[in-house]
């Protein structure tokens, strides 16, 4: 069973029940309706589209939400305005359902659709039909999201889910496409409660420094240094060269190590240690790629006022080092 839970009982909640290849969709409103339906149908698993855990005291966002955002999934954290009532309702329902012996998992339909390599509810509906499911009942955005949740519950039962996990929550997403496995691979870098390693590259060329405008959160729309996470089996130098190419289109040669930046609060997604390198271009063509919205070479005297993360500090240190090493006048 899948549930697209509304924040309160005055608003519609989507329900989807899958039995064999039959999917029945309907709208309900109250917790009592959902409990009664559960008693009657006795589902093995219910996947709910709602936060089912609270963030730590004083926080608006859970670590699991930060991991989702890092993977490119746009979730609304439980402490944000408009989400608090939904979260409390979800937590209460989870407790009631689990007391009835039902397994309850948290999911996020739009992220599930993205993990399947699809775009939007219409594509997902066609995907289900093409997969041989007969769909009946009330079809609207609430029930399609519930159907996505129900499909995730079905995937959970068949071992075809991956789970974005942290100490404060777990979100299930279905696996079908190669892209899902790419998400899983990327998640490995952020899934453990321990620092992860990233690189930042300060690319200098003719008194200019290359910056990228971030396409995704955090710091969406801010200028930043090119960089990213170190992949398993890579040296940090190899990661820096790869990230420079992926984000800017440039081939670079590393000139020097600038420093290690390890403030646990430097990245809102979690504890990320960045190793910064000074580099120069040796080829390639300047162009935006991967998660960069735009890329530009700025004069060192005309830099943006604000940079993402702690990149203003890293850039300041890098320019000082470049002058000491006579790479800048």
């Amino acid at each position: 069973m899948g549930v697209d839970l509304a924040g309160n009982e005055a608003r519609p909640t989507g329900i989807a029940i899958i039995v064999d290849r039959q999917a029945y969709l309907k709208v309900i409103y109250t917790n009592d309706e959902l409990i009664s339906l559960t008693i009657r149908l006795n589902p093995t698993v219910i996947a709910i589209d709602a936060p089912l855990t609270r963030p730590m005291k004083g926080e608006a966002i859970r670590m699991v939400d930060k991991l989702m955002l890092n993977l490119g999934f746009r979730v609304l954290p439980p402490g944000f305005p408009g989400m608090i009532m939904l979260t409390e309702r979800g937590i209460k329902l989870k407790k009631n359902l689990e007391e009835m012996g039902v397994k309850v998992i948290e999911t996020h339909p739009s992220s599930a659709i993205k993990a399947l390599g699809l775009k939007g509810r219409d594509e997902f509906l066609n995907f289900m039909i093409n997969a041989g499911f007969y769909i009946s009942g009330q079809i609207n955005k609430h029930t399609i999201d519930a159907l996505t949740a129900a499909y995730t519950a079905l995937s959970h039962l068949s071992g075809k889910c991956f789970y974005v996990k942290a100490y404060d929550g777990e979100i299930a997403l279905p696996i079908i496409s190669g892209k899902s496995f790419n998400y899983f691979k990327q998640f490995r870098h952020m899934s453990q409660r321990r620092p992860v390693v990233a690189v930042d590259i300060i690319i200098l060329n003719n008194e200019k420094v290359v910056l990228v405008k971030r396409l995704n959160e955090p710091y969406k729309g801010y200028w930043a240094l090119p960089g990213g996470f170190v992949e398993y089996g890579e040296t940090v130098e190899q990661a820096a060269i790869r990230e420079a190419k992926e984000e800017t289109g440039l081939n670079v040669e590393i000139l020097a190590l600038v420093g290690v930046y390890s403030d646990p609060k430097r990245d809102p997604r979690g504890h990320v240690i960045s190793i910064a390198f000074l580099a120069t271009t040796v080829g390639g063509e300047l162009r935006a790629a991967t998660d960069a919205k735009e890329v530009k070479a700025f004069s060192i005297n005309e830099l943006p006022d604000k940079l993402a993360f702690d990149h203003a500090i890293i850039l300041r240190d890098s320019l000082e080092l470049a002058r000491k090493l006579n790479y800048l006048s």
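Residues 2-187 form a domain with the Nucleotidyltransferase; domain 5 fold (CATH 3.30.420.10). The longest strand covers residues 272-284.
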